[in-house]
Amino acid sequence: MLARALIVLTLLAAAPAALADPAAVRRTWLERVAISAADENCHLFSDGEKMALRSGLYQSEGELLRANQNAAEMRRLS
Prior knowledge:
Number of helices: 4
Strand content: under 5%
Order of helices and strands: HHHH
Low-confidence stretches: none
Largest sheet: none
């Protein structure tokens, strides 16, 4: 029983981490950048909604950076 548990734990530890599709994350990031820009010009959202949007933007930006996206290109697009 203990040996079986150790084998399962070893296999789980050796499994590669799940990664999101970089193209889908990039599309999500670009959509959030565009929505943020629209909000700056048109004042579409409440403070809470702006914070949620900014949080999602930072999350997708971090995921793109972890996927080795070019930070300079991301700044240029935003």
